Amino acid sequence: MQIIYTTLASEFGKSVNTTQNIIKLFEEGATVPFVARYRKETTGAMADDVLRDFHTRWQYLLELEKRREAIQDILQSSDNVPAAVFKSLAAATSKTELEDIYAPFKQTRKTKADLAVEAGLQPFAIAIWQDGQANAAQHYQALPDTVRAATSQSEALSGAKHIIIEKLSQNIMTLQQGKQLLKKEGELISRVMRGKKEIGEKFQDYFDYREAIKKCPPHRLLALFRGKKENILKLSIELEQDRLPYSLQQAIFLTPLGFPEIKERTPSKEKIAWLESAWQEKIFSKLETDILSELKEQAEAGAIEVFQDNLKDLLMAAPAGAKRTLGLDPGFRNGVKWAAIDEYGALLDYGVIYPHAPQNQTQKACAQLQQVIRKHQIDWVVIGNGTASRETETLVKSLISEQQLNCRSVIVSEAGASVYSASPVASQEFPELDVTIRGAISIARRFQDPLAELVKIDPQAIGVGQYQHDVKANKLSEALDYVVEDCVNKVGVDLNLASASLLTHVSGLSQRLAQNIIDLREQLGGFTSRAQLKKVKGIGDKCFEQCAGFLRIRGGKEPLDASAVHPESYALVKQMAQQVNLEVKKLVGNVQAVGQLQQQLAQPGQLSFTQKDILDELAKPGRDPRPEFQYASFDDSVATIDDLREGMTLEGVVTNVAAFGAFVDIGVHQDGLVHISQLANRFVKDPRDEVRVGEVIKVEVLDVDAKRKRIALKRLGS
Predict the structure, then answer these.
(1) DSSP type of residue 280
(2) The domain spanning residue 72 has which CATH number?
(3) How far is CA 179 from the centre of its chain?
(4) Using CB atoms within 10 A as the burial measure, which of 348, 358, 396, 636 is most buried?
(5) pLDDT tens figures, 588-618
(6) Count of CB atoms situated within 10 Å of the CB of 3
(7) Is the pTM of this model over 0.70?
(8) Domain boundary at 31, 60, 79, which?
(9) Is the Cβ–Cβ distance between 38 and 566 less than 8 Å?
């Protein structure tokens, strides 16, 4: 474990003691959100995302040490394993490096080199390696009679060659030097497979393509690997050098497995020739496979990071809040499904109208919408951005204006609503409703509180990723679960309103415990204090510690229960209240008293992290870290891609941010792309430095390709 402590301490700039204390918390079952929020004294106030990286890296290092020990145990039970191998194992810093060291000792099918060793030619190969081929006859005669009787001198030389080349190709330092060389100087080559030009037209940019490995960005790598997966592209690596560089030549001075150490300072031409043969016959092909695999992993990691960032922005999007909402799931032939919900998300009414072709029941639809809006005192009409969304928006806007209805309309993303509507969660919430009506409810609820509704949907179905279908599903799922957990706990959850889906992501809670909370809540008619959580089946002291601070109770017996102050700090808050001669309930939200406390507590010295967080929370209890709500106003004259013209200035909503730019919904059923070069009037390294998912921006139309459904945009005002 000590190596893990020192590694993490070095990488994250913490002392070994701090690192040990953080790991101890994790080993005791603490979650990342809990440690980040309520154990800042231990972590030194590490940011949430940094602590998440710390936890992920810790898990990797644990797996690394476990694998290292397993390999060492296997090799220690084997014969004739050089001490240098164990030294290399001890120094390895990655799983890939461990497997490279272990590879020569795995039990695999026999090679020509293995057969030569079995034939007794290992001593002959060592002699040839040390002395050169000039004295081959002399060394051949030194072989036992039985070996010479079964093998001619030419056969012995051939066997020795196989042994030497295999030993060189197994030398870990040779492999490492070679890998560094290819990554630094190599080029990634892509060519179209024979006969695949027509069916692989979407990959035409890569039919004859080359780029330095060190410069190829993750999104381009994923496009290349997708082409390879679909058998359209053939990928390879090339190294444009006449001979191996000096650094790689020096690698052969490190003892090849089972060979004696080389003493000379400069490799002979013959040894360099052996190395070049090994490079051409074995080393290069192995390294090419390894590097392509590593590049794919790196690209996948980049894609996962993009998805994580976009998902975080979407989940943390501004909530409209407690507004009575009418959700519309638009369509033509199958009609516009609608669902009215109250300010708490409870279903009030639902139905279907047919204002568009082929039914064209416009007058009847408007009358029904007007009745629903007035009856339920609707504040917002929320329209999904799918088929018939602009036509439906035009209808609603006209109705609101003509009838002077006291509400507004907005178009929102409906990504994932259909997935939710057919899910077990939706079936449990609304077993009697048709899936299409459930979709309308989801659209309305996500407007009120995106986080509370979107947690019910598999993050991969929300559609804010980049090549997410090309990455390993388990890695993506785990990474996205982390994002959801961090977002839910950063915002906090209303204990008396939260769904089981939302509660499941609260620190320390499982799906079973979330349902147990719901069951007790129904029995009690609502929780009146956090302390009642201890009555929930399965929630003990440790679980209570992990979850309590993230659960809020509005209007309960204890005013602090509505805040992010953890119950373990209630006594401290009472002491603070006594210092300013106030009751706790009169201190909460009292900015003047909190300011007085800050001055008093700062007198003896620096405020602790816990004190500072408590004072911030007391000043603005239960504050929401999400931004203020805003929405885009689409141009009424632009409803389809055919309405677009170059030079148009429009307002839109960022729906996805990739490494190469941002996609923007401008209300024509096809997102436009603001390329990274058009995001600002300056160099942009990362598009997320300029825009985030859900942000409303103004754009100019640069180019429209209606046939290929491509819209090029430029961001304005940046």
Answers:
(1) I
(2) 1.10.10.650
(3) 27
(4) 396
(5) 999 999 999 998 888 777 789 999 999 999 9
(6) 13
(7) yes
(8) 79
(9) yes
